[in-house]
Amino acid sequence: DEGTEIAALKRYGVDGFMYAKMSNRITHVPDALKDAPVVLVDATDAEGRIPSVEPDEIMIAKDATNRLIQAGCRRIAYIGCSEPMIAQDLRKEGYRQALEEAGIGYDGRLVIDVLNNRPALDEVRELFDRENPDGFFCFNDARSWPVYECAARKGLTVGKDISVVGVDNHRVIAETFSPQLTTVELPHYEMGYWAACKLISMIEGRSLDDVPMPATRAPIPPLDSPIPARIHCTLIEKESVVR
Predict the structure, then answer these.
(1) Cα-flanking dihedrals φ and ψ of residue 90, to 5°?
(2) Residue 213: pLDDT over 90
(3) CB-based contact 194:220 (threshold 8 Å)
(4) Gyration radius (Cα) of the chain, Å
(5) Which domains does the chain have, with CATH numbers?
(6) How confident is the model at residue 210 (pLDDT cuts 50, 70, 90)?
(7) Are 19 and 38 in contact (CB under 8 A)?
(8) 206: Cβ–Cβ under 8 A, 6 or more apart, which residues?
(9) pTM of the prediction?
(10) Long-range contacts of the stretch 170-173 (C-beta < 8 A, 24+)
C-alpha cells in the first residue's frame, strides 16, 4: 500500500519526496504527501500546484519526424500506442505539426496504434501493403520491431530503402537491431537531476541558481521553469535513416 510506504519513510525523518511514474501522465498526489516538499518526475500534478519535470513530448515527435523529412521521406507513418497515454497524444500531435510545417499533409491512413504483440506485426504488414510508407516514426523503440520484421519479409533494407526513428534509446533494442536504430533518447538522468535540485532548493528554502549543472546529453531546464518543466530530448543518430 502506497500510503503505508510513505508513512514508513516519514518515520525515518525524510525531508522531501521525489514522486515518479513509469510513463508521463497526469497524477493525483497522495494525500500523505501533501504536507511535505514534493517534486514529480515524469508526471504532472492534476491540480497544477506541485513542481514537476517531464520530457517535451511534442518536440520528441517533431525532431523524429523532421529527421525523416530531412532524409527525403514524404510518406511517413506513425506507429503509435493503443494504450491511453499523454505521451501518445502529444507525440501524435508533434508528428502532425512537423508534417504540416514541412508542407506535407497529415494522412490518417498512415497512422496506426498497436500493442507490443503478434497482432502488431499483422497491422504493420497491412500498412506496408496498403500505403507503401518510406519512413516510420515509432512511439517507442519496441514498436520499431514489427517495422524491421515486415521490411525484411518484403525484401526492404532499413536505412537504405526505408527509414525508421524510435523513442527511448533502449540499449537492448536500439543497439542490437541491425541496422542500429536511430532514436530520441528519453532524459531519465536529466529529469532525476532536475528533480533532486528542485527538491533540495525547496527543502533548504534557497535558490540553487549558482550551482553549476553537469554536462548532459539533453539540456537541464532552469529550476524556476513553469510547471511542468519540460526537457528537450536528444536524437541519437545511428543507422536506420537513409543517408
Answers:
(1) -75, -35
(2) no
(3) yes
(4) 20
(5) 2-55+187-232 (3.40.50.2300), 57-186 (3.40.50.2300)
(6) confident
(7) yes
(8) none
(9) 0.94
(10) 170/140, 170/141, 170/142, 173/141, 173/142, 173/144, 173/145
Is the CB of residue 78 less than 8 Å from the CB of residue 90? no
| Burial of 12 (C-beta count, 10 Å sphere; 0-12/13-18/19+) | exposed
Q: What angle do CA 145, 147, 150 make, to 5 degrees?
A: 110
Cell of 153: 519479409
- The residue behind cell 503478434 is 118
Give residue-wise pLDDT tens across range 147-173.
999 999 999 999 999 999 999 999 999
First to last CA, the chain: 51
CA 63 to chain centre: 11
- Give the per-residue SS3 of 54-109: EECHHHHHHHHHHHHHHCCCCCEEEEEECCCCHHHHHHHHHHHHHHHHCCCCCCHH
- pLDDT tens digit string along 67-111? 999 999 999 999 999 888 899 999 999 999 999 999 999 999 999
**CB under 8 Å to 103, separation ≥6 — which residues?**
none
